[in-house]
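R.M. (postdoc): so does anyone remember the format we settled on? I'll just put the structure tokens first.
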């Protein structure tokens, strides 16, 4: 069964924030000390206005989401337990289709599942750094339709 991709609907705000928190903690292996209310406010004030948010639904249940612009992928998360079912690939494919021909994104180096996922989809490391808020090493990835064999 494949997920249906739909544009953001505010009725999914609470499940989205919970999915985001759970997927982040699972992928990065940390416990986020911030209240969910702060994450909800960050999503509404920072993520949503600057990105097109797409939801991945299975029978109206939220199983993933992506926040992306034509230049970058800000967030891409799949519900824990639903990995390796093509949900993230479908979301990332949509980001590539909507892009201006290239995309960049950041992830934490300790999120080895995410790093392998992006590399499998043609992204290459262009920069390594340190994210001061989380005090974790991160990596910047880039993808180009011209150098990576298209969409």
């Amino acid at each position: 069964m494949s997920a249906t991709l739909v544009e953001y609907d505010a009725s999914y705000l609470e499940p989205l924030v919970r999915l985001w928190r759970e997927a982040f903690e699972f992928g990065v292996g940390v416990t986020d000390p911030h209240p969910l209310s702060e994450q909800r406010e960050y999503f509404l004030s920072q993520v949503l206005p600057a990105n097109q948010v797409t939801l991945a639904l299975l029978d109206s249940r939220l199983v993933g989401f992506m926040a992306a612009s034509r230049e970058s992928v800000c967030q891409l998360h799949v519900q824990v337990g639903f990995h390796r079912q093509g949900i993230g690939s479908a979301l990332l494919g949509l980001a590539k289709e909507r892009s201006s021909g290239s995309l960049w994104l950041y992830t934490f180096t300790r999120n080895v599942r995410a790093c392998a996922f992006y590399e499998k989809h043609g992204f290459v490391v262009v920069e390594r750094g340190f994210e001061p808020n989380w005090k974790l090493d991160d990596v910047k990835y880039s993808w180009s339709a011209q150098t990576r064999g298209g969409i």
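R.M.: ...and that's the designed sequence above, right after the tokens. Also worth knowing: The chain has a mean pLDDT of 95. Strands lie at 4-7, 52-58, 61-68, 73-78, 102-108, 124-131, 136-144.
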